[in-house]
Design brief:
10 helices; Glutaredoxin; four-stranded mixed beta sheet; alpha+beta; 4 strands
Length: 195
């Protein structure tokens, strides 16, 4: 039994999801498949050249306050990034190129903490390298693999797959042919796996 977790490192609501999905799924005997993708191409299809939270300031103000409430409720540290949205392309390629590695969930959480707790620039290779090194991984080899054409093509294909499957935001969860969107739909998605 598995759930596909589609996430974007720039996505605010993907942060609390990434911090809780693995333990919640494991408690129900469900495996998580970690699937990074880019929201930019999806937003471009909708005529947006930025995050809707920036395009619509009222929506953005609500989201930041909602994130503060949500993280407080979950006991998660949270600091509004000084730059939003940040470019998580390199980190996403790392995950895509090493999708089956046991360290991937910890790496994903480390990158989210860098962005939404430490206010670190996650597009900076040194930040991504630190996230890997802190987990005891060979950052040099992993980053080199993530920069190969094969890794770039795989990630581009994965983003295209997200679009083809009707994913329009992050976090999203896919169970079979069912799509669930939003941190608040995680429990419903896991319940669907168990049906």
């Amino acid at each position: 039994m598995q759930i596909e977790f589609w996430f974007e490192f720039a996505s605010t609501y993907s942060y609390p999801t990434a911090m809780r999905i693995e333990a919640l799924a494991a408690s129900r005997g469900v495996q998580v498949v970690w699937r990074p993708f880019l929201l930019g191409p999806i937003f471009n299809q909708q005529g947006w050249n930025d995050s809707p939270f920036n395009i619509y300031p009222v929506k953005g103000r609500y989201m930041w306050r909602d994130m503060e409430r949500l993280c407080e409720e979950l006991g998660l540290p949270f600091r509004r990034p000084s730059a939003f949205p940040r470019n998580g392309l390199l980190a996403a390629r790392v995950v895509c190129a090493h999708a089956d590695a046991a360290w991937v969930p910890d790496f994903v959480r480390s990158v989210y903490r860098a962005n939404f707790v430490e206010d670190a620039e996650i597009s900076n290779p040194a930040v991504v390298e630190r996230c890997l090194t802190d987990l005891g991984q060979d950052a040099t080899a992993i980053l080199a693999a993530a920069q190969t054409q094969a890794a770039k093509d795989k990630f581009r294909s994965q983003t295209a797959e997200a679009m083809a499957r009707g994913i329009f935001g992050a976090p999203s969860f896919v169970v079979g042919n069912e799509l669930f969107w939003g941190n608040d739909r995680l429990e419903a998605a896991i319940a669907w796996v168990l049906r």
